[in-house]
Amino acid sequence: LESSTVEKEHISLPGSSDNNSNNLSPFLQEMVDEQRELQMNVGKAMDTLRKDYPDFLSRTPDYSLYHENISLKASDGQIQLSKLTSYKKALGLVRSALSLVYDADRSIIQSRMVYDPTRTELRVSYNAMLVPKIMGVTGRTVHVDGISIYAFDLSASVDREGKKNEGAGKIREHRIEKLLVNGAAMQPPYFNNFGLEALVGQRSGALVGAGAWSFEQ
């Protein structure tokens, strides 16, 4: 796929200046260190997502960014997943189904991201032009437009017992605010929006025809 178009805002978090952290109390110094670590995690997430979005059809995403208890939600309530294992399965199913029909080399996915430090959220707007491998299968190129919001875990990197918190600074929530296919809001059964019902119906079972995706593990 062609590379994505990404605009990253400068991330400026409270207490990020080294000059201000010289003569702080231990409590304030800990707050500064936590903010600095969060800033690094946000920067890593932006860099990784910048690579993952354009290669969605051809390469497995980097799941190291995500919290073990990540939740995936859609604004219409039709999609509700929890736990990283379910998140991986859902994205893997979508990738596999789309890759059956659409040409990864000819398709294009572009994205733009903006970080909101007040909400500690990363907003990713994306659009995709999915070109079928054989025009007769889906009939035409499919255009997808969407907005995803990623929220980060704000818990301390070290707990009260001094143990490292592996989930600190990782993406804890993924919210789908908008998802349009050829200009229309995507409706369940979701794969039908891409003309895939005949191809993936047997493989994906209940997920293809379900009114919503909602399961936990």
Automatic annotation (TrEMBL):
Pfam families: DUF2358 (PF10184). Residues 14-25 have a biased composition (Polar residues). Residues 1-11 have a biased composition (Basic and acidic residues). Residues 1-25 are annotated as: Disordered. It comes from the Eukaryota. InterPro entries: DUF2358. PANTHER family: RIKEN CDNA 2310061I04 GENE. This is Uncharacterized protein. It comes from Skeletonema marinoi.
